[in-house]
Amino acid sequence: MNQQELDYIGQTLLEILNNDNNIRKQGEAKLLAIKSSEPEKYACYLVAILGHQSYGIEVKSLAAVILRRNISQTAADSQDIGNQENNANLWSRITPDGKNFIRGELLKVISQTQDKHVVSKICNLLVEVGGSIYEQEQFVWQDLLNLLFQFVNSEEDLKVDAALQIFNGLFSYLMDYLVQFKSDLVGIFKKTLNHKSLDINLSALQAVSNFLQIAEGKDAREFTSLLGDMAQVALKALAADDETVLEDALVEFNEMAEIEPKFFRKNFKDLFIAFSAIVAKDDYTNPLIRHQPVEFFVTVVERVPTVVKKDQDTLKALLDLVFKLMIDIDADIDESWMRPKEGFKADEEEEDEDSVHFGKTCVDRLVSSIGEEIMLPLLSTLVQATLSNNEDWRYKNAGLMALSQVGEYLDDISKISPMIPTVITHLQHPVAKIRYAALHCIGQMADDMTEDFQEAFHESILPAVTHMLADPVPRVQAHACAALTNFFEGTSEEIVVNYIEAIMPKLCELIQVGISIIKENAVTALASLAEAAKEKFSAYYDQCIAFLIQFMGAFNEPVYKQFKGQVIEAATIMSASVGLDKFRPHAATVISAMLEIQNKQLDNKDAQRTYLLSAWQRIAIIMGQEFGPYLPSVIPSLFQMATLNPAMSVQGSEHTGDIIDVLSEIKPVEDDKKNLNVNTDEIEEKDVAIQMLAVFIDELGPVFAPYAEHASKILLHMIDYEANDSIRNSVASSLPGLIKCIKNADPTNQAIILHYSRLFLENLVKAINTETETDTLISQVQAAKDIIDEVGEGILEQGTVEALTQLLLSQYSKSDDRIKENNELAKGADGAEDEDDVVDQDEMEVIKEENNNEYDLQLSIAEIIGILFKTHGPLCGGLITRLFNETLPHAFGLNEKQKTKFGLFILDDMVEFLGPNLLGAQYFQVAQQIIKHCNSTVAAVRQAASYGIGIMAEKSGAAFQTIANDALMGLKLAIEFQMPASVQEKKTKVKQFNHARDNAVSALGKIIKFQSGFVDAPALIVNWVGLLPIKNDVDEAKVQNEFLAQILTENPTLVLGEQYQRFEQIVLLLSEITNEKYVTQETGQKLATILKGIAGNATFSEQFWAIVNNKLVEKSKNNIMNAINSQ
């Protein structure tokens, strides 16, 4: 090895460490040049420096870090990101001889180095080399493993610690190899967990933790014998008052609980007893250490609830610990809490408040996982005990905060009623934090039991909370505003209108004179009040909007940016509540004020930006195409925000932070040096901007067309945006609206319509092929469907239809595979011999949710197939063949409700869009398959079958004659299907049952209307009328009510009877359906004409009014009178 060249590399590293940017850049350039021209020499010299006596700790550390980053496949050298060849993984560019030299030197260096800092960096390098060898060459570096076993048995703590660090890192690469030596690893960890050095104990615990988080559950069982030794690491640290090791040890237990909670199932109680001592100690330098054991307990319970369901004594003890944390806060209330500084944010909360918040969260998690049947009685006892304590206010505080969490889990408002007077009483407590907690309780319950809570308690709660707006403590005033916000968000228009006069002036005063936290909460409460009141707020709108516009132009200090953002939000929410006519006179002023803020007052990271984005959406929805003149001023900044690239950057450096990351590994930043400020663009802001773009596209229509090209470039650029699936969803959902916008702007320009629609479809297809998130796949498939439907015939050619067929059926198959995998996991767990292999309730819920998402995806695939039939039926021969030969037999053969529903969706679309002409001989087969499901025990299946019959009646013409009798028999079964007791117990199931029946009744009406020549129409009409009204499926109701109006107009005796014997029945029916919910405007006018004619007819008038006055409930009577009195 050439000493001169070695010195050159060493000097170059020193230059990189220099604080002078110019010198550092020169060093980086030199090193990159060597890596580019002589990668092997570059690597070998960096290794040689590690063992050379003449170089200091920082140079050696830098050499190890740089080499590790170059060898790593996950941390490519981004200092050379522009040169992909030079930036390729370094290990693959080194010859076998070079690799042998590096391996040998590294083993020698790690054995000889005595500096702990350098050893740590070399350990990381050894892990990377060992991992690269295994991943790239399928070769285990046995010499390294042998050395580690030697190190573990060494008398030198440094070597033992190094061995554990390397083992810990290798688990990520060699787990499938190392699990063969579980017994050896258990022995190593047993020894090191009991080592005399607490630091080595911690390293051993971290290694065991990493193993358990990476290994399969079955490979973790052997390690349960170590649990006692693992727990002792934390307990030894507790005894030694070593808070650093204690906290690090508890972090490991929490991470293990997140990934492998069942590992602790059998020993949970022992761990609970042992770790409770950590919570009991109350003199830590960092009091939040007490949270860590409780976090561990709650995490395990969340994932394995049976550990306490079968041991309620432990559950009670756990709740006692949670309450103890909530109570053990400072008894003195600081002035800074009562009157926070201007610009205060909730995340700046004190440690005490963190303990209360932490306790509330724990209560919520425990109720959610264990269930209200067990938890609520236990909580009730604790809450009552704490609320009755009049000696120490902290008990009441804990009780009220815990009580605030239970509303979400109560299904009956009466269960909380007895506690409401108690909560209201505490609004007058002399301790500010108690008043605050009572307000928090009210606000949380209003949010959790929305509408029912407001309707039941508004008369007692709203006056009491309104009174709290005058509380002498600003923090309490602010929370009173927050409680009002939550209350208003679930309050009906009829209720809230009674409180506007009393509350609005007080909120306006607080906005005017309060500190920033009061201003923020008061203006949001005012917006919620307006939103709840809707048009009834119109009388106050002019005054309020003028008031808020003043604030949009004032309070420009940074501490008021949040307030200004909420003012923007409030102004636009109010305007949306009262409508365009009220907003129009103020529109220009509001928009001008918003543009002033947007163009002149925004910082790089500004709270106002997201509020502005949402506000523009509201204004676009309010104004529609009237917003067009303002677009040139708004769109540029919108496009800019939508194209921001969230990326790491470091202030004060021209690099993107990577060299600073390297240097920070070498020497930690000292307290008196400049901190590294890492900035990230908010992905959420980007997502909001894209959603805003979608709103503009949908609401402005052709007015947005001049910006369509630019918008399409932005959207397509992010259609496969990896960093965030919400953005991918938003992009996909925006594309159909953009096509509609382009089409409406110039319907005659088919060339441009086809260009964009095909471009969007091409990109959607590519995105679908690589997408991994089911929710996003649904958005993408639905977007493709909507585009094809919007453009219609001609968008696709034969080859495109065939390619799309392959894509859709492939996605259906992949979705099926994911469902099978989930089902096998659940089924396999049912027969598991080992308790740890049992899938718990939470895991079953996850499996169920994942499968439901997959079924939704499959229904989306069925829907786009239907659109292909609708728009390109003659080109779908190949698709139809594959459906009949592969997909449909499989779907119906499984006899599963979701699969049957999927199959019926496709068959319904076949009869609607392909019909007898394209289906030919298969039409009868399709019809019989639909009809036979009319008697299914599954309501959704009966609904799909009945809908299909109605469609066949409407679309099939004379071909329907061959199936008419079968269809009627099927509908008879569907209509007469009795509701099982199990359905009656659940509202959602009752609703689905009624929808199925409605569709069957509607199908009967369609047979009468479209196929009267093949059935006994007069007899069927009597049955059909007797089954009306349709009340659940509103769309079908409107169709059938139009048909009824048509018969009553053209041939009334068909419905009324030759002797008008069904007159009363029809009047009663009309009184129920003459409502805008169940009729179109045109149908409503027809029915009104009919009713006016009956009311004024000398023959029927007396009988008609007798029915109206004596046999109708008030609501039905009003329906009749409104129709008769209509213009």
Task: Map the helices and strands.
Blueprint: H1 3-16, H2 21-37, H3 39-51, H4 57-71, H5 96-112, H6 116-137, H7 142-152, H8 157-178, H9 182-193, H10 198-214, H11 217-220, H12 227-239, H13 243-259, H14 268-280, H15 291-303, H16 306-309, H17 312-327, H18 335-338, H19 351-370, H20 372-387, H21 393-403, H22 420-425, H23 432-448, H24 452-467, H25 474-488, H26 493-496, H27 500-513, H28 516-533, H29 538-552, H30 561-578, H31 580-600, H32 607-623, H33 631-642, E1 649-650, H34 658-666, E2 678-679, H35 683-700, H36 708-717, H37 725-745, H38 750-770, H39 774-791, H40 798-830, H41 841-872, H42 877-893, H43 897-919, H44 922-931, H45 939-955, H46 964-976, H47 981-984, H48 987-1010, H49 1017-1027, H50 1034-1050, H51 1053-1056, H52 1063-1073, H53 1081-1095, H54 1101-1111, H55 1114-1124
Antiparallel strand pairs: 1-2
Helix pairs in contact: 1-2, 1-3, 2-3, 3-4, 3-5, 4-6, 4-34, 5-6, 6-8, 7-8, 8-10, 10-12, 10-13, 12-13, 12-14, 13-15, 14-15, 14-17, 15-17, 15-19, 17-19, 19-20, 20-21, 21-23, 23-24, 23-25, 24-25, 25-28, 27-28, 28-30, 29-30, 29-31, 30-31, 30-32, 31-32, 32-35, 33-35, 35-37, 36-37, 37-38, ...
Task: Name some characteristics of this structure.
single chain; 1127 residues; mainly alpha; two-stranded antiparallel ribbon; 55 helices; 2 strands; globular
